[in-house]
Specification:
Elements lengths: L2 H11 L16 E5 L2 E4 L4 E4 L2 H4 L8 H11 L13 H11 L8 E5 L2 H18 L7 E5 L8 H6 L17 E3 L11 H19 L3 E6 L3 E2 L5 E2 L2 H13 L3 E5 L13 H5 L5 E4 L11 E5 L1 H5 L20 H15 L1 H24 L3 E7 L2 E6 L9 H12 L2 E2 L6 E4 L7 H17 L4
Parallel strand pairs: 3-15, 5-6, 5-7, 7-10, 10-11
Antiparallel strand pairs: 1-2, 2-3, 4-12, 8-9, 11-12, 13-14, 14-16
Helix pairs in contact: 3-11, 4-11, 7-8, 12-14
The chain binds pyridoxal-5'-phosphate (PLP).
The site of pyridoxal-5'-phosphate has 14 residues, from helix 5.
């Protein structure tokens, strides 16, 4: 189909996510992709610096992952997972058990990051009910956290500010501060101490009634690529543990190497009771997610009656194609070359951010966590629907760079196959934008 015809049909028939259809530019029609490059209808290459919404781990259309999906599709494409099981699912759980933090290994499958979070919240609440403590029903979350777009996930992430239209639907969640920090931030310790102090005071009053706390370890993504230090995370987890509160770590974004180690939890040396994984789980090839629970939590659901069981499931639970993709992606992740690539990306980020911060006063709060780099552009109105945000997206796309700033926060979160030359091209585009105020 010609690109013009495709776009006309798209305009008539398709409803795009997070898009104001009246004012948004026409979407880019992508025909194919390979490595870090997307190719549009005219054959133009666009460098994917956001891993297509943070999912693509090893590059697009990776031959090993494509092969694994193809072979699995010819054997078993889907089967109900209540009352049935299959080798790709069991093999995936077995492989993950070898690398997950804190010996976590009891895997509950669902379809995306939001459902992984819904499952975690529901499991936490029911666990206390099953244990005869239904009074533990409060949830605790952290300022600027984002956990997805379903109702429970929105409730936990309400402070991200995306959910005004549905405020009436959301259940109350206690929200505590996070000391977001950056390179050269001199007040980190003071803000960490203040945040831990606020948590102590909150737990003093509500600790005994709190079922679980949920947070994104080390990197709050959609809330603005805000980063905190491993020591703060350790402090939070220790305080929650001391009160018997279940710890849910949402590693939907950070999982599978984004922050350096295989999981951000490992970076901080903490182990949750429930771990949410998605996005990079299948290397970004297919939608699938996991909520991984401790054995102790799983034990709370065992008994003679069905009422103690977790009565929750999705049509495509543990889809064999997704499992096959995840296994192939794990092979790539565990290859030592992948860790070297991630370390190389981090070095490039650090070198470039230092240069940009020194050259442009508009670069605020530069920060790096593993393969993710971010900074804010000084502006009077850096919001999501702002003119600056629209100009930056246009400016980058015109240079063949897929970079989608969050408000005024520019970030790079590339697939691990991105080359140094490609990163240099991206940063050169950013420098040019800063030079010109992102005006064409
Ligand atoms: C930390 C985190 N949790 C949950 C989600 C929701 O995932 P999904 O969009 O797959 O529902 C996201 C999505 O960006 C995320 O970054």
């Amino acid at each position: 189909m010609e690109t013009a015809a495709l776009l006309e049909l798209d305009r008539a028939l398709v409803w795009h996510p997070f898009t104001q259809a009246r004012t948004a530019p026409a979407p880019v029609a992508i025909r194919s992709a390979s490595g870090a490059l997307l190719v549009d209808g005219e054959g133009r290459e666009i460098l994917d610096l956001i891993s297509s919404w943070w999912v693509t781990l090893h590059g697009h259309a990776h031959p090993a992952i494509a092969r694994a999906i193809g072979e699995q599709a010819g054997r078993l494409e889907q089967v109900i997972f209540a009352g049935c099981t299959h080798e790709p699912a069991v093999a995936l759980c077995q492989r993950l058990a070898g690398i997950l933090p804190g010996g976590l290994r009891r895997c509950f499958f669902s379809d995306n990051g939001s459902t992984a979070v819904e499952v975690a919240l529901k499991l936490a609440l029911q666990a206390w009910r099953n244990l005869g403590e239904p009074g533990r029903a409060r949830f605790l979350a952290f300022e600027g956290g984002y956990h997805g777009d379903t109702v429970g996930a929105m409730s936990a992430g309400a402070s991200s500010g995306f959910f005004e239209a549905w405020r009436g639907l959301l259940f109350p969640v206690d929200v505590l501060p996070v000391p977001a920090t950056w390179l050269g931030d001199e007040r980190t310790e003071a803000r960490e101490a203040a945040a831990l102090d606020a948590l102590d005071r909150h737990l003093e009053r509500h600790g005994a009634g709190t079922a679980a706390a949920i947070l994104e370890p080390l990197l709050q993504g959609a809330g603005g690529m805000r980063m905190h230090r491993p020591g703060f995370l350790r402090g939070v987890v220790a305080r929650l543990r001391a009160r018997g509160i279940l710890v849910i770590l949402d590693e939907v974004l950070t999982g599978f190497g984004r922050t350096g180690r295989h999981f951000a939890s490992l970076e901080a040396g903490v182990a949750p009771d429930l771990l949410c994984l998605s996005k990079g789980l299948t290397g970004g090839a297919l939608p699938m997610s996991l909520t991984v629970a401790s054995e102790a939590l799983h034990a709370a659901f065992l008994g003679e009656g069905i009422d103690r069981a977790f009565l929750h499931g999705h049509s495509f639970t543990a889809n064999p194609l997704g499992c096959a993709a995840a296994l192939a992606s794990l092979d790539l992740l565990l290859d030592p070359a992948c860790a070297l690539a991630r370390a190389r990306i981090e070095r490039r980020h650090r070198a470039w951010l230092g240069r940009l911060a020194a050259a442009f006063p508009a670069v605020l709060r530069p920060r790096v966590q593993g393969t993710v780099a971010a900074f804010e552009v000084a502006a009077p109105d850096p919001g999501c629907g702002s003119d600056l945000n629209a100009r930056m997206k246009r400016f980058f796309l015109a240079r063949g760079l897929l970079i989608r700033p969050l408000g005024g926060t520019v970030y790079l979160l590339p697939p691990y196959c991105v080359t140094d030359a490609q990163l240099d091209r991206a940063y050169a585009g950013i420098a040019e934008g800063l030079e010109r105020g992102f005006a064409e």
